[in-house]
Amino acid sequence: MSSVRKVVSHSLLLYVAATALLLVVFVSLASTSRPLHSYVTVKLPANLTILAPKLSFPSFGGSSSSSRRKNGFRPILRDQSASSSSSSRVLAYREHLEETTSIPSLAHHSPTLTFDHIYLLSLPSRLDRREQIGKLARAHGLEVTFVDAAYKNEPFMKWIAERAAEVRVQRLKLMAKAQGVPAKSIGGLHVGNPWTIQTADLAGDIPFPPLPDVAPEFAPSWIDHLHKHIEAGTLSSLVPKDPNLNITKALYDPVEKILGRQVNEGVISTFFGHTKAMRLILENGDKSALILEDDVDVEWDLERLWGRMEHKLKDSGWEMALLGHCWGRELLRPQYLHPHLHASVVPLCLHAYALTNDGARHLLSLLENPWTAYQTAVDTAVPSFISFGIFKSFSVEPTLVVQRKDGPSDIQEGVGSIWHGLLMDSTVERIARSEGEEVVEEEFHEGRPVDPALVWRYGKRPCAE
User: Fold this and answer.
1) Percentage of the chain surpassing pLDDT 70?
2) Which end of the chain is more exposed for a tag (fewer CB within 10 A), N or C?
3) Are 273 and 264 spatial neighbours (Cβ–Cβ below 8 Å)?
């Protein structure tokens, strides 16, 4: 019994000692206002260990007892004196999930946004736009490759238009015969217009013959001839038969009633520039590439937003993905594995689009078909091919890239439109604020007029015809 009493007595002494030591620790912490940043381990004789939970105690000075009871004895309290370490502890689980469950493309920054190249189409003389794009690229840590666009007043633009006009005469005859309709009834420059159809008939059963069989002067093909001069750097030697050629008159479509749709120098030069950028994808062996025009603004979280969408597209067989577009009806098709991805309907504008290597090859074969090339605007031809179901494209909606519309247009007078797209978090606006500029938020109201550029180019019923 005496041995039992000794054990009990010894245990009681250890318990009292432990309690006293804990009280000393707690009082010390409270008097210095220093929180305990980890579990307090108190070692006692006989390997007796007591763990005190991580607690934070306010200073006794100037605090009421009720305040101490309320704030000082919770099981877990934030450490207000070390907010950064506290924040990291609060976000530790989120950071763990981020590191262990994020898709590979988001694990590290990609200076080309998962693409092999970002091609930036821009006139060499537009140093203002190149400077703006330079700031935007630095804001995202991006590497862009400038592609020199062609000036609309270069003589070879008239040479291209002259060839396209000659082809149109032959094409019109073949289409009228295949469709059994008067030639004067064929035309229009809307999305899905007759000049973008790849066959002479509407059903797709009667292909166009090889062009030299109809017009030997085009042998082997006027597009092949153009490519030879592009590769040789001798485009300046391509001059029209008529140096005073009026492009709009030569390619005028009497069926089309909207003047803004008629082909002009700007339409030809834009078509040439975009096909030039597409060919670079093939020449450089890119698996995929992003093509941008030089008047864009992008979402501040562009890389993360696009990275998640690109991951969803990998098994879709996509050829094109439009990160930016305008005036389309992309919400008419269901979401594709992501709330902002839709199979394209009629996405207009080409200020931001991605192409796979196969997509670039396929699209060039459609755009540079000698029977089709330069017959209509490139940003009408592309949605036409999509609407025919012969080219597989996806659209991001809402868009991640918009046109700025804050400077003179290279295609038409003015800025092209007083409207531009909206972003959740504009990179351009962030840059402006950082430089001390005032950024005025746009106001929305129900009576807002229709975008004048939309009416000018597509009429009052966009995409309907």
Assistant:
1) 72
2) N
3) no
CB 57 within 8 A of CB 29: yes
Buried/exposed 131-162: b ≥16 CB within 10 Å, e otherwise = ebbeebbebbebebeebebbebebebbbbbbb
pLDDT of residue 52: 42
231 against 408, higher pLDDT: 231
Closest CA to 103 of 335, 292, 310, 245: 310
Residue 30 clears pLDDT 60, i.e. is over it? no
Task: Transcribe 71-131 into DSSP letters.
Answer: HSS-SS---TT-HHHHHHHHTHHHHHHHHHHS-GGGTS--TTTTSSEEEEEE-TT-HHHHH
Average pLDDT of every residue of the chain:
82
User: Which residues touch 6 (CB under 8 Å, ≥6 apart)?
Assistant: none
Residue 68: per-residue pLDDT: 38
* Contact predicate 132/146, CB 8 Å: no
pLDDT at 276 over 50: yes
Determine if the peptide bond prior to 220 is cis (ω within 30°).
yes
Backbone dihedral angles phi then psi of residue 211, each to the nearest 5 degrees:
-60, -40
Quick check: 392 and 318 in contact, CB under 8 A? yes
